[in-house]
Write a structure and sequence with these properties.
Layout (H helix, E strand, L loop, with lengths): L1 H21 L6 H10 L1 E2 H8 L3 H9 L8 E2 L5 E3 L5 H6 L2 H9 L5 H12 L11 H16 L9 H17 L5 H6 L5 H12 L4
Antiparallel strand pairs: 1-3, 2-3
Helix pairs in contact: 1-4, 8-9, 9-11
């Protein structure tokens, strides 16, 4: 009974923190379907890995692990299947922040990326790692600035552009309508993949 009450309180605190970060937006049936296909519930993941879900919630609230990527309509905390992978690579949760930020030469940038990682909003990547974050940043910048290149519009330029777009396409999932609400507009898939393919068709 006590354990159930503790779990309920932790889930409520985590849901409140999630909405502080993401806003309070409804999840549609289509959103729930997408999230269920792309993510796993925290309870299920912890059961598979032999971890205590309440202990993991405490780590999230203490900003040692990222928040869930989504809260499904039924209240399930949906997380990536590799949620624990980075902590394992770092040698434990206590070492994760130092390990993570060390992937950026600039400490300010590393700290900013760490804070972004903790929000759980890196749902823009199939697998969230420092390397994939850096690669996505490189690709989105290269794609959006490609129109300023001297040979923009040429066949060779279009071929280079679509190599970048295809690589970003492989890194990113489809996103869902909920994402466009919490991010306040189109996603990087909308602007850097779909829109660019429409604007500059493949040669």
């Amino acid at each position: 009974m006590v354990q159930t009450a503790v779990r309920t309180a932790l889930k409520q605190r985590l849901a409140e923190r999630f909405r502080e970060v993401n806003g309070d937006h409804p999840m549609t049936d289509a959103d729930d379907t997408y999230v269920t296909a792309q993510f796993v519930s925290l309870e299920e993941l912890c059961a598979v890995h032999g971890r205590d879900s309440d202990a993991v919630r405490r780590l999230m609230l203490r900003q040692q692990l990222p928040l869930p990527g989504y809260l499904r309509s039924d209240g399930a905390e949906m997380v990536p299947a590799d949620l624990f992978a980075l902590a394992d690579a770092a040698g434990g949760v206590d070492r994760l922040e130092a390990w993570f930020t060390a992937h950026w030469a600039d400490r300010v940038t590393g700290n900013a990326e760490w804070n972004a990682y903790l929000t759980g909003q890196y749902v823009c990547l199939h697998s969230v790692t420092p390397a994939s974050i850096q690669r996505k940043d490189h690709l989105t910048t290269a794609i959006t600035t490609a129109v300023n290149e001297p040979d923009a519009g040429s066949a060779q330029w279009a071929e280079r552009l679509h190599v970048l777009i295809d690589e970003l396409d492989a890194l990113e999932p489809a996103f869902t309508s909920y994402d466009r609400l919490r991010f306040g507009g189109p996603t990087s898939r909308d602007t850097c993949i779909a829109a660019m393919r429409t604007r500059f068709p493949r040669p």
